[in-house]
Amino acid sequence: MFTIPTFPKTPKSKAPKRIAVLTSGGDAPGMNAAIRAVVRTTIALGSEAMGVQRGYSGLLEGLIHPMVPSSVANIIQRGGTILRTSRCPEFMKPAGRKKAISILRHHGIEGLVVIGGDGSFRGAKLLHEESGIPVMGIPGTIDNDIPCTDDTIGFDTAVNTGVQLIDKIRDTASSHDRIFLVEVMGRHSGMIALHTGIGGGAESIIVPEVKTSVKSISESIERGIRRGKTSSIIVVAEGCQFGGVTPLSKELEKLGYSTKMAILGHTQRGGSPSSHDRLLASTLGAVSVHALLSGVKEGMVGVQGPEVRITSFKKIQGKPAELPEELLEVARNLAV
Ligand code: ADP
To answer: Same domain, yes or no, for 66 and 113?
Structure first.
């Protein structure tokens, strides 16, 4: 359950009459639930909803169309994004954004909701500053690496997928006395690895934020062997110091360990969103529209503790999301 902020009522004449939504950057399960919430809340509150295909690239191509409540029917359970997504280098240049602004104006769009990660929010911030058009961001990334929000849409689903796959790997690892290195996504962040590793009962978790050594990994394997363990699961974040499971397995081989590897990769990005991600996406989508309609000009709608909060894009940038030290300690103590 989230505590949702209330917004002052604004005269209808001042509220954006047409609100557009787009998804940008990496896709994440739950983005569809967020699109659905933006479209339906916009219409329920008396404005028009528009969808932009393929993120900022589609915006530059004018791929903008009206959306009605039935446009978002039967999508809450679907992974990916019905609006599709993209990466758009042209939008990083002032001339590209100038073109995007004139296209938004041409379509009468008076408010924009960007569902994406920190890169997408850098673009959203500039778009707002250069045009004055109100822009809200919704954190949609499996990595959960955005500052000023404890959670991002897709993270819970990705962790659940990872834990289910580790459960399966553990069955075979324990039948064959094996050391399994399981690589999970997360780019430069260890958040997916930490949560997946704790949930999957991993013997070790290697994250980019905490430097370790092959010697210390070997010591933890040996500790397990002394306690009678015949198999080990080591969860490895893709962005860790070793550069993933392949180089790490070569290092461990040099010490005489034979390992098996599993790279979960994009399986963690797909699939039907968890109920948690559907609720999060529906809530953040609805709040983004309430904010726009009550005159909020810019910012990301995130969660801090149980509260839904809006943080200015200015505060988010240049600030790395941190791995909670308490959770790292939980992981360390569980791996003894
Ligand atoms: P994510 O939003 O998942 O972090 P990216 O970092 O790839 O994904 O960013 C998505 C898109 O956002 C980029 O392709 C680009 O169009 C836009 N973007 C990213 N960084 C900037 C920036 N500094 N200025 C303007 N636009 C940006």
So the answer is: yes
Structural domain boundaries enclosing 232: 159-269
Look at the chain and report how many structural domains it folds into.
2
The whole model's pTM is what? 0.96
Q: Is-contact 190 209, C-beta < 8 A?
A: yes
CATH number, domain of 250, equals 3.40.50.460
Cβ of 269 closer than 6 Å to ligand 1, yes or no, is no
Question: SS3 of 181, please?
Answer: strand
Enzyme catalytic residues: 143
Query: From the CB of 137, is ligand 1 less than 6 Å away?
Result: no
CA distance 324 to 82: 33
Asked if pLDDT for residue 120 goes beyond 90, the answer is yes
Tokens standing for residue 271: 């699939």
Mutate to test the pocket of ligand 1, among 87, 129, 149, 316 (most ligand atoms within 8 A of CB): 87
Convert the pLDDT of each residue in 131-159 to its tens digit. Answer: 999 999 999 999 999 999 999 999 999 99
